[in-house]
């Protein structure tokens, strides 16, 4: 450990080549003792989740200030959500179908690690949906047809749900305030916006909708058909959603929160090749006037620009032809919430509402800075960076740069530092000059390759959470 720390802390990294941007990285602290599944932040506390439990660390020096160890009969996490200083998560444990099974709903204080409240259910399961308002904890409760099917949790198709309920619990007393049975399968509770509890739902006929509920009693107020969604954001009374997979029913749509009216929708075939309608890796960002869509279509990486007012596609550009990999579009634009470990691979993005449990939750292949779009994609083993100016009319790239045979994906940190985009690789860190795309990649941020889980940025201070490494550093650009 001392040798490794010494290696990293040589990190006053100075990059001074005249033709390249300059950067200095000063490592404040590093930890390689944990396996990290996910990470969250509240003020000056960094909270990590590992197989053993949660740990809270001081961001200033990395010292562990509290631990929360899972009990031996913990089982697995079925949902998790952060709301300001509270982490709320649900668990399920099953050994014997008759007696030895239970589900728990637990709230932790992120500053102290103290367990604030806990509910244990013996006859039902706290399942996928979970979110918090200032006064109520909202969760989905299911009752399976066959308890024994719950022992095998690797495949949701093995779970036969008898009934699904929306429940609300008082955050202070954990007394249940309501139990609403009018609830379809596979929900994701998004949060309370404009006085409505929003959720994505899927009924038994696999019809995907957005629904709004009365947050005080769980009564359903409206439903809007949108198709299966992967991302979205809330702004000025509207919910903008994007399809998880483009097919004949998928839509890019704007829904009015007050009444569920679909203000506009853009069927998948209208913004992709009408003869090929499958898309993977679809992601979205937004500005005051535009929606930026980034995805993979028929083994090409592309982005599209839409008018946020009416959903019209303004222009589209293919970034890479051939085999590609892209990351999630965030960068301070939107935040993930409501995801789980191992159960559902992806959740929804909504602006300003907590961070959920999901790898790549604050990593991106697209960075929006003022009216500039920066992209980072992988073409085979080559990393390709490009810059476009955001406008209503199609434009050629300002510049395109390629690094050959790097074999790894570079992600942007959430915000530029003094106008310079900063890139994080599996063990590298890099800087790009916005004017001409000149760059410098420093190859020794870590002495080994590791999987990046999350990034937390506060000005020039960046905390990087890898699967086996935690590192906090100050970055100075020139």
The secondary-structure class comes to mainly beta
Report the end-to-end length measured between terminal Cα atoms.
Answer: 32 Å
Range of helix content: under 10%
The count of helical stretches stands at 2
* Assembly of the depicted chains: single chain
Tally of DSSP β-strands? 40
Whole-number mean pLDDT? 75
Radius of gyration: 23 Å
Largest sheet: 5 strands, antiparallel
* Unreliable stretches covering 5 or more consecutive residues: 1-18, 151-157, 269-282, 322-362
Question: How do the strands of the widest beta sheet line up side by side?
Answer: 1-2-40-39-38
Q: Which term fits the overall shape? A: globular
Strand content: over 45%
Outline the structure in words.
Helices cover 3% and strands 53% of the residues. The chain has two helices and 40 strands. The strands form ten sheets. It has a five-stranded antiparallel beta sheet. The model is unreliable at 1-18, 151-157, 269-282 and 322-362 (pLDDT under 50).
What are its keywords?
mainly beta; disordered N terminus; five-stranded antiparallel sheet; 478 residues; globular
């Amino acid at each position: 450990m001392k040798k490794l720390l010494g290696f990293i802390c040589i990190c006053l990294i100075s990059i001074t080549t005249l033709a390249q941007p300059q950067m200095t990285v000063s490592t404040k602290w590093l930890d390689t003792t944990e396996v990290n599944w996910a990470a969250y932040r509240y003020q000056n506390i960094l909270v990590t989740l590992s197989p053993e439990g949660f740990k809270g660390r001081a961001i200033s020096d990395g010292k562990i200030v509290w631990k929360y160890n899972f009990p031996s009969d913990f089982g697995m996490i079925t949902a998790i959500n952060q709301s300001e200083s509270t982490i709320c998560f649900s668990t399920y444990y099953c050994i014997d179908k008759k007696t030895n099974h239970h589900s728990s709903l637990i709230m932790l204080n992120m500053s102290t690690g103290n367990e604030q409240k806990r509910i244990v259910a013996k006859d039902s399961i706290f399942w996928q949906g979970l979110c918090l308002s200032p006064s109520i904890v909202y969760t989905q409760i299911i009752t399976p047809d066959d308890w024994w099917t719950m022992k095998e949790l690797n495949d949701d198709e093995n779970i036969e749900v008898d009934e699904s309920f929306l429940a609300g619990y008082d955050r202070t007393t954990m007394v249940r305030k309501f139990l609403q049975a009018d609830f379809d399968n596979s929900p994701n509770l998004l949060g309370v916006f404009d006085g409505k509890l929003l959720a994505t739902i899927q009924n038994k006929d696999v019809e995907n909708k957005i629904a709004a509920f009365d947050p005080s009693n769980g009564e359903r107020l409206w439903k809007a058909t949108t198709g299966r969604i992967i991302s979205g954001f809330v702004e000025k009374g509207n919910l903008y959603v994007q399809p998880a997979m483009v097919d004949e029913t998928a839509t890019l749509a704007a829904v009015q929160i007050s009444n569920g009216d679909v203000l506009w929708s853009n069927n998948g075939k209208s913004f992709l090749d009408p003869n090929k309608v499958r898309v993977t890796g679809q992601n979205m960002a937004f500005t005051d006037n535009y929606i930026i869509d980034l995805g993979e279509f028929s083994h090409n990486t592309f982005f599209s620009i839409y008018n946020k007012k009416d959903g019209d596609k303004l222009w589209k550009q293919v970034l890479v032809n051939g085999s590609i990999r892209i990351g999630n579009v965030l960068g301070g634009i939107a935040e993930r919430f409501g995801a789980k470990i191992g159960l559902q691979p992806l959740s929804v993005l909504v602006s300003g509402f907590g961070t959920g449990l999901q790898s790549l939750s604050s990593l991106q292949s697209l960075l929006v800075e003022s009216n500039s779009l920066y992209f980072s994609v992988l073409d085979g083993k080559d990393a390709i960076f490009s810059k476009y100016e955001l406008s209503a009319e199609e434009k050629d790239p300002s510049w395109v740069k390629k690094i050959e045979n790097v074999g790894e994906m570079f992600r942007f940190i959430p915000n530029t530092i003094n106008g310079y985009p900063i890139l994080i690789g599996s063990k590298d860190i890099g800087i790009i000059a916005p004017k001409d795309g000149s760059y410098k990649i420093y190859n020794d941020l870590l002495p080994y390759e590791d999987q990046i889980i999350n990034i937390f940025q506060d000005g020039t201070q960046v905390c990087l959470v890898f699967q086996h490494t935690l590192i906090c550093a100050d970055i100075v650009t020139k």
